[in-house]
């Protein structure tokens, strides 16, 4: 893998897909956002998103990672990562809706394999077709990294269950139709030494006893989060996802894969930040009329930025290639997530520094990317959690 701000791909299939995706992102989707005045701070509604879901599906991108029987192309993880990197690098507000990250097939994760025929027909196949959207509701105010401390409970009730609790940071919640909710089975884990049992449910967000409220606005300024408030909400037994008591396993079953697949999007965004910074250093003049890039101090900064990006990208794709070969990459996934998050933050910090006051100004893309990238050191597992995972993996190495 050589360094490039616009990577080429040896695999003809991946090269063709990346080329078509770039054309769509930089052309039709960019025009769509401009015509609607969509910015990163816009409150997105179904009227904004559904046309993108449908068009992305028509072009073969929405759910492209899925098996062919679901309309996908059964992509390798490495091929999917190449597409996710391009989405991150494009700068489009709605890029997250092209492959189905936000409320679509990628958000639903691996639950297709756990769903009944009824659940597939009612929830998941419409999701894949871009007709419905979902959110994933696991986190609570006092149950983040320690998800087993969640307080949302499920009580068996005749032909179903009654759920009560308060979920936070449900991404895509503002425009989702249903949520994948993980709850603790009532009566378990309440006594010392008693192991809690968790189950997963498909919850229609218009059900009685279910309220979707505005979630906290993250520092990126994007309005994509919701709280899901459940107050004795009845969920039919047929909406139990998988077996009772296996919900946490379903929720966290693809955690290693998901941890790795978040990295290419961040690498793409960092790639864009470096490209914008290099353009700035070539066009911004210093005293004497010379470009900023002629200063050795600036040359050293961009050299370090490019080197860290190359290292982060190489590490991530090496781990993804091993995953495609069926290898256990849990430790490598922790390492990749940690290094990508920390190096991307350092790169964006330097990008802001080089842009000067403009890099501190709201509305400047570098300023937005700095805020967005800073979040990745916490989201999907803090850097400290990643270090814990690495240390645990090392402890069991010969």
Automatic annotation (TrEMBL):
Keywords: FAD, Flavoprotein, Oxidoreductase. Its cofactor is FAD. GO terms for molecular function: oxidoreductase activity. InterPro entries: Acyl-CoA_dehydrogenase (IPR050741), Acyl-CoA_Oxase/DH_mid-dom (IPR006091), Acyl-CoA_Oxase/DH_mid-dom_sf (IPR046373), AcylCo_DH-like_C (IPR036250), AcylCo_DH/oxidase_C (IPR009075), AcylCoA_DH/ox_N (IPR013786), AcylCoA_DH/ox_N_sf (IPR037069), AcylCoA_DH/oxidase_NM_dom_sf (IPR009100). CDD domains: ACAD. Residues 16-131 form the Acyl-CoA dehydrogenase/oxidase N-terminal domain. Its EC number is 1.-.-.-. Residues 135-233 form the Acyl-CoA oxidase/dehydrogenase middle domain. Residues 245-394 form the Acyl-CoA dehydrogenase/oxidase C-terminal domain. It comes from the Bacteria. Pfam families: Acyl-CoA_dh_1 (PF00441), Acyl-CoA_dh_M (PF02770), Acyl-CoA_dh_N (PF02771). Belongs to the acyl-CoA dehydrogenase family. This is Acyl-CoA dehydrogenase family protein. It comes from Streptomyces pulveraceus.
């Amino acid at each position: 893998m050589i360094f490039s701000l616009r990577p080429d791909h040896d695999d003809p299939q991946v090269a063709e897909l990346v080329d078509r995706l770039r054309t769509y992102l930089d052309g039709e989707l960019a025009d769509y956002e401009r015509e609607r005045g969509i910015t990163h701070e816009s409150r997105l509604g179904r009227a904004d998103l559904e046309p993108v879901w449908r068009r992305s599906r028509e072009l073969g991108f929405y759910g492209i990672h899925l098996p062919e029987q679901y309309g996908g192309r059964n992509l390798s993880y490495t091929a999917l990562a190449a597409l996710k990197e391009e989405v991150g690098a494009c700068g489009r507000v709605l890029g997250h809706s092209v492959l189905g990250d936000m409320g679509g097939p990628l958000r639903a994760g691996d639950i297709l394999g756990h769903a009944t025929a009824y659940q597939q027909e009612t929830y998941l196949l419409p999701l894949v077709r871009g007709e419905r959207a979902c959110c994933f509701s696991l986190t609570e105010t006092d149950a983040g990294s320690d998800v087993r401390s969640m307080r949302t409970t499920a009580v068996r009730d005749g032909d179903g269950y009654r759920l009560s609790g308060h979920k936070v940071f449900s991404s895509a919640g503002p425009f989702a139709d249903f949520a994948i909710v993980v709850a603790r089975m009532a009566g378990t884990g309440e006594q010392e030494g008693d192991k809690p049992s968790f189950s997963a449910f498909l919850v229609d967000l218009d059900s009685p006893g279910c309220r979707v409220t505005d979630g906290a606005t993250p520092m990126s300024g994007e309005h994509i989060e919701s709280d899901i408030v459940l107050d004795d909400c009845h969920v039919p037994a047929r909406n139990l996802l998988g077996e009772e008591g296996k919900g946490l396993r379903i929720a966290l079953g693809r955690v290693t894969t998901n941890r790795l697949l978040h990295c290419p999007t961040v690498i793409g965004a960092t790639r864009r930040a470096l490209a914008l910074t290099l353009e700035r250093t070539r066009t911004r003049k210093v005293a004497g009329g010379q470009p900023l890039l002629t200063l050795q101090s600036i040359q050293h900064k961009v050299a370090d930025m490019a080197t860290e990006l190359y290292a982060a990208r190489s590490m991530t794709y090496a781990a993804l290639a091993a995953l495609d070969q069926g290898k256990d990459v849990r430790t490598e996934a922790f390492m990749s997530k940690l290094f990508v998050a920390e190096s991307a933050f350092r790169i964006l910090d330097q990008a802001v520094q080089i842009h000067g006051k403009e890099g501190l100004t709201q509305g400047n893309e570098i300023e937005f990317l700095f805020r967005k990238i800073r979040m990745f050191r916490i989201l999907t597992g803090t850097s400290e959690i990643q270090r814990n995972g690495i240390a645990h993996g090392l402890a069991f190495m010969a």
